[in-house]
Amino acid sequence: MTIATERAAVLALHWQVNVIRPEGFFGGMLSEPVRHSGVVGRAVGFHARARAAGLPIVFTRFVIPEGEGALVRNTAFMAAVGDAQESFRPDAPGSLLIPEMAALEERDVVADGQRLSGLAATDLPDRLAAMGVDTLLVTGVATNLTVEQTARNGTDLGFTVHVIADCTAAADPDVHAASLANLDLTTAGCLTAEEALARVTG
User: Fold this and answer.
1) Under 8 Å CB-to-CB from 91, ≥6 apart: which residues?
2) Peptide linkage before 50 cis (omega within 30 of 0)
3) Cα–chain center distance at 52
4) 3-201 fold
5) Which residue blocks in the chain are alpha helix, DSSP H?
6) Is 201 in contact with 1 (CB distance < 8 Å)?
């Protein structure tokens, strides 16, 4: 199945200091597995090649504005980030995209939210639809958290979703593999970066 550039976008989830870097809020859990996996370099390369092929890149950030926005403290995860919300303010150092991802061109989009899914409780699905996008190529960390939640959410919203398997990572390789196996069943299927790029036509 081909991927038409005029109908597809890369959805790049939570490539933020708080998630990826040792000094970030989740650094103790994720920074070393992310570094060891080499996922940042692969994702940077995929984003650049996808952009060159004509695909827009949509970055999502998990941030908490004053007043908490759409945050709901209905899980231990959301309660924890709510308690540490100063670290997640939109202009806080931890909320920034990591430098490798921060060289954005004009057509790239950054969308902020307060849910585990990058598509939940925001206008991003409507913005994507207005761009003519019905297919999402998903990258990000962590595979079993925001990636899986967003991919399932996007599928339920009617998007054709492909997770880019080698541009995701989790704290544990076995959890990463199990999450990808789930996503193969619950989305249009996982692809490697090379497989996805080989399908792009435009």
Assistant:
1) none
2) no
3) 19
4) Rossmann fold (3.40.50)
5) 17-20, 27-37, 39-52, 76-83, 124-130, 148-156, 173-186, 193-199
6) no
pLDDT one-digit tens code per residue, 102-139: 876 566 889 999 999 999 999 999 999 999 999 999 99
Query: What number of residues does the chain have?
Result: 202
Q: Categorize the per-residue pLDDT at 1 as very low, low, confident or very high, splitting at 50, 70 and 90.
A: confident
Instruction: Give the integer Cα–Cα distance in Å for 141 and 59.
Output: 12
Q: Domains of the chain: which residue ranges? A: 3-201
Eight-state DSSP code of residue 98: P
Task: Count CA within 13 A, CB hemisphere, residue 113.
Answer: 20
State the pTM of this model.
0.97
Burial of 178 (0-12, 13-18, 19+ CB in 10 A): middle
Contacts of 84 (CB under 8 A, 6+ apart): 25
> Which amino acid is it at 80?
A
